[in-house]
Amino acid sequence: MNTFSAPKGTYDLLPPESAAFLAVREALAAPLKRSGYGYVETPGFEDVKLFSRGVGESTDIVTKEMYTLTTKGGDELALRPEGTASVLRAALEANLHRGPLPVKLWYSGSYYRYERPQAGRYRHFSQVGAEALGAEDPALDAELIILAVDAYRSLGLRDFRLLLNSLGDKECRPVYRAALQEYLRGLDLDEETRARIEINPLRVLDDKREQVQRQLAGAPRISDHLCDACREYHDQVRELLTAADITFEDDVKLVRGLDYYTRTTFEFVHGRLGSQSAVGGGGRYDGLSQMLGGPELPSVGWALGVDRTVLALKAEGIELPSAGRTDVFAVPLGEQARRALFGVVTELRRQGVSADFAFGGKGLKNAMKSANRSGARFAVIAGERDLADGEVQLKDLESGEQTSVALETVAATLRERLL
Ligand code: ATP
Ligand code: MG
User: Fold this and answer.
1) Domain for residue 221, yes or no?
2) What are the residues whose beta carbons fall under 8 Å from the beta carbon of 82, sequence distance 6 or more?
3) pLDDT at 357
4) Do residues 266 and 333 share a domain?
5) How far is ligand 2, taken at its centre, from the CA of residue 351, in Å?
6) % pLDDT > 70, the chain
7) HSE (CB half, 13 Å, CA atoms) of 180?
8) Which of 26, 44, 185, 405 has a CA 20 to 30 Å removed from the CA of 36?
9) Is 157 among the domain residues?
10) Are 213 and 206 in contact (CB under 8 A)?
């Protein structure tokens, strides 16, 4: 058979596994919903310039990973590779920043990056994200980190670490940047990396190659260059995290190599995911609003990867929530029973009891097989003779016990026995 397959680097979510995905997405968002974050949804594509400016011309996302397209009307668009730029664009466009600050928003959806597909790295993936716009307050940075940790913990995840760093601000970062460039220029590096020293030197710290990492041992550290204000801010974030019973590791090589990323930066890494170990990350981006033509709007946010969180749960052997099963399965024998039981199923559903039906005019044997396979607790079975007596058979699929119940009262009886 010559049918279609899902595009390279993508996969479909199907029952029963899709239930776990949905549950993870809900668990990651739950702490935000009870912390004053409002739901935001933006389009799946934006003006390509929003990302080239908002993510950065020199990042892998923009130079290599973006899906871009030109519309019939001549607009240059890109499928969104991440959420922050879109959310900030939407907030500025709606003037939310003129109201009470901070504006706290959360989102959940699909993102697209043209990457080399491998385990935990896809071309279409899902994130749950949060952004807090318009406040410079270490408690806000701490809040977001705590909410992410609480989300992971609520799922039962244990084997993850929080890496933390400060990138300084517009006062102290340029001094550090120059010192780092000076050091990097003296190393033995390939041409592409030498070019990166001039455009985006902090990114070099992030190079995964052993021969590069070896040479970075003596590189100047941002922690030795923070100005007093940044140091004080970072100490407060650390104190608040410690007070909230959160362990973190200082990682001076953790960077977001763009000028509008400032101060707090963090990443969550999982211990059993191989090289795609980052399950989430975020940080402060005090300069981004101005990069997009907006006012000064110091902000902080994170994005957690849903796909990798599901993989992390599997790797830890944590039982994933399974597909919601229905409580009742109706098995009619004959046309009259079909109508009567379809009515019962509709009534049960309206009363809040989950129920399903043997569709497709199956015989008793096959219909009972469907009932058993559905995982339902009860089967309601009826033939012509039962109906003539105004009755249906109620079968407990766990114990096998079967009783006659009046057709009129079966919905009420089931409700009582189930709730
Ligand atoms: P990586 O270093 O693994 O490429 P990243 O720095 O590009 O990650 P972010 O842009 O910070 O990732 O996105 C936040 C989270 O989204 C990541 O921690 C990860 O869990 C998830 N993520 C990013 N890219 C992908 C992808 N291609 N497939 C699946 N999940 C992804
Ligand atoms: Mg990436």
Assistant:
1) no
2) 51, 55, 61, 111, 127, 303
3) 97
4) no
5) 47
6) 100
7) 29
8) 44
9) yes
10) no
